[in-house]
Amino acid sequence: MNADVLKGGFAAAPVDAAHAFRAAMNAIARPGTIESICGAMPPAPMSEAAGGLVLTLCDPDTPLHLAGNWDCKEVREWIAFHVGAPIVAPGEAMFALGDWASLTPLAQYAIGTPEYPDRSATLIVEREMMEPGDAVLRGPGIKTSTVMSLPEVAAFQKNATLFPLGLDFFFTCGSKVSGLPRTTKVEAA
């Protein structure tokens, strides 16, 4: 194991994890808002925010799928050392990490069952930039509406029609994170 794997976790794990958890929950509770998650130093290509989400939300009982360039030796070793999450195929994952192109098609992930809708996957989608954009969001946690840049509006519209089943999403870029739960209605701007 490379010595660099030992680095990159939270410096003050209890405090940093609490801050990251609060930022993640605020982001998912208020779709379209942007929060900060700082303190993690994961290997490339993971962003600081994605690393913070993995450190906070994953553990040995949380199967994780790594897609595309994120499925590399450095990321696998870092995850094994810091959280011990098993790396699995998309259909077995509770969380999945990658960019939009490598995470699609969405049909490969668990969307839950009518009896257990919570047994669905949450995708951590790495973005090159986060800015207001091409989609109008409405639903719980949004007073009237807000705008957000999404990689493919139609995919999120379809996901919302599956409710109470469906996928939840975190979008990360650098130290920034935003969330999009399955309850959010999405329209093209």
Care to describe what's here?
InterPro entries: PhnH-like_sp, Phosphonate_metab_PhnH. It comes from Shimia isoporae. By secondary structure, the protein is an alpha/beta fold. The protein has one domain: Rossmann fold, CATH 3.40.50. It has five helices and nine strands. It starts with 12 loop residues before the first helix and ends with a strand.
SSE blueprint:
Elements: H1 13-29, E1 35-36, H2 48-57, E2 64-66, H3 73-82, E3 95-99, H4 100-103, E4 122-126, E5 135-138, E6 146-148, H5 153-161, E7 168-173, E8 176-180, E9 185-188
Parallel strand pairs: 2-3, 3-4, 4-7
Antiparallel strand pairs: 1-8, 5-6, 5-9, 7-8
Helix pairs in contact: 1-2
InterPro entries: PhnH-like_sp, Phosphonate_metab_PhnH
Protein name: Alpha-D-ribose 1-methylphosphonate 5-triphosphate synthase subunit PhnH
CATH class: Alpha Beta
What CATH architecture do you see? 3-Layer(aba) Sandwich
Q: Which strand order spans the largest sheet, edge to edge or round the barrel?
A: 1-8-7-4-3-2
Radius of gyration, Cα only, in angstroms?
16 Å
Average pLDDT level: 95
Shape: globular
> Distance N terminus to C terminus?
48 Å
Fourth-tier CATH superfamily name: Bacterial phosphonate metabolism protein PhnH
What can be said about this structure in brief?
The chain is an alpha/beta fold and 189 residues long. The protein has helices spanning 13-29, 48-57, 73-82, 100-103, 153-161; strands spanning 35-36, 64-66, 95-99, 122-126, 135-138, 146-148, 168-173, 176-180, 185-188.
